[in-house]
Design brief:
6 copies of one chain form a homohexamer.
Chain A (H helix, E strand, L loop, with lengths): L1 E13 L13 E13 L11 H13 L4 E2 L13 H17 L11 E9 L2 E7 L2
Parallel strand pairs in A: 1-3
Antiparallel strand pairs in A: 1-2, 2-4, 4-5
Helix pairs in contact in A: 1-2
């Protein structure tokens, strides 16, 4: 099983709804350092699982849509806490869609996808799925 | 599959019994930077797998019980080499017990647990289990 | 010359005023991983430059005052862009005051102070001053 | 499930054949920081999965065979692009052979092997297999 | 004194001339993770030392000129070993020229420049100069 | 001004004498990831400040003398708390001696020396001196 990972980041504002979040119920923000891992069992004739340049471009495009925004104002997250877990799933779902659309090459080769969001040097979250 | 990780550390002394350990048979010590990952398939209504604050508290409590100690003197490790592997399992077992006790919220949600101990910039060990 | 560094972090929202900031003019946010370095030429009789526990407490207290806040709403930053540089100076000034007040032990021993704020894996800023 | 990881590195030159590689078709090079993870369900009587010293020696030996070389000139890679994925598999296969030969102790104990090659701070690739 | 740092990387091939280099006399390569730090005593009215976007662009441009190349073939390095120290100086000189040309804003504000090249997880080199 | 840094590590046991140390008065231990930086204004004809291989060897030798030991039992530290600051100075003094003895090449070229000891992911200390 091969895995290829690319890293990018995004900087967002948001607040959380629920007592469990304590002071994070206030409007605050985060830098998320985002790792996207593509997995698969075979390489193509060039010896690659995915074109790492295209993988990086797709990740950049996915994080750019959220970057420098207040996620509380984004319609797609209305009624949802944009926790690290939720954002990891959001980005993984978005990349999965791109994989299925063939944006990274033959979609059949990528059989798994993991997105990890580092919110600080002491906490991170991830979401793993099949494309 | 979601994963949430929190990081803490502990500083301990110990020695190892067995020729395989070479100079590490002498009393020495280590800083272990400890990562605890909680895994599960679903989020609760707040959009979280575990309350990251409680996860951090539980990890801190688990490492605090070993911190600033000579593990050679701890009864619970009598007759056991406190290798990085053994300590990873010890902490994972301890956290699993807390998960089952509901300390991190509904235990059914956490279906996997990984504890990784970084002993230096070039070596680390982990233990993975179900709670 | 000795140096002792402790690390903590804070998560804030803010926006910037000025065309130079491009999309960062919008309300967004950041995790700042904050390193505070204390410098001095001599150690005390215990063999320390500063009590690392107190240094960590002072840093935690300084970042806690900004954590989980929208800095655009904080009176002390009114009319000021809370850039990484500005926040590094803010925290260094705050810690310098605490050093002078003796909160870290005899202030004469700490002759320099550096605060570094990591805003992502590819950018950070620092401010250095005498206490 | 236990895992033990050791880290080393190698510095190589190579070029890639195929338009997908863009400027990387030119002769260039890379530092690969290499992590080798050994996995298994049980520890031996010493409390270890593998002798970490022997694991480090085997990894060093494996990367030494490629270090400070132009991989384009190495017969074993003739006709193959030495991408990060290919090199991860090459090193994993090499280590698997050593595990099976008993070089790290009883081969039955190591039931999984992962090799990860970090090519920069924003990209890495891995290969996972059973020994 | 303020400092602002941006990070990028480059992947190059090269060889060294001189017995002191041992196996590195052979054609090999390296990934250099490059940090460029700009220093100065004052901020502009926007609260910044340098426009971090322009700083990142200038660094990217500087490393792009060397990326995916065999430095042994570059005329500007003829007769020179492209050691990590030499490349750090090369990039710092290049950035200093750009600072003086006003590419990062008023050159008077940047009074110091440091370029650090990480060649592996266990070795790096830097060069510091005034612009 | 050039700087060249090499990294190694050591694992030691020790205890501290003094109420300021709290639980660290008990016998415990630490992994110290040790960075040694050599500074100088000029390169030799090979384009290097120091032979990085010899620098790494000297650092390894210096840390090896302390590794896998209980520093409370080492005569050279009798009556001294082996704090991170003290150990940073100890290693810097040791390396300075080696520089002066010509072990890294012409001592005149190295005009500064910094040793940094990382005791965890959130704390480190350094000592800087002329050789």
């Amino acid at each position: 099983m091969f895995g290829v990972t690319v890293r990018d980041h995004m900087m967002v504002a948001h607040s959380f709804d629920g007592e469990v979040f304590g002071p994070a119920q206030r409007l605050h923000g985060a830098t998320f350092v985002v790792d996207a891992t593509f997995r698969g069992d075979t390489l193509d004739d060039d010896g690659i699982l995915v074109d790492i340049g295209r993988a990086a471009d797709e990740l950049r495009s996915a994080v750019a849509d959220l970057s420098y925004r207040n996620l509380d104002d984004e319609p797609e997250f209305a009624g949802t806490n944009t926790t690290t877990e939720v954002l990891a799933k959001h980005l993984a779902d978005r990349l999965a869609e791109r994989v299925r659309a063939g944006a990274l090459g033959p979609s059949a080769r990528v059989t798994g996808l993991v997105v990890t969001l580092h919110e600080s040097h002491i906490a991170w979250a991830s979401y793993e799925r099949v494309p």
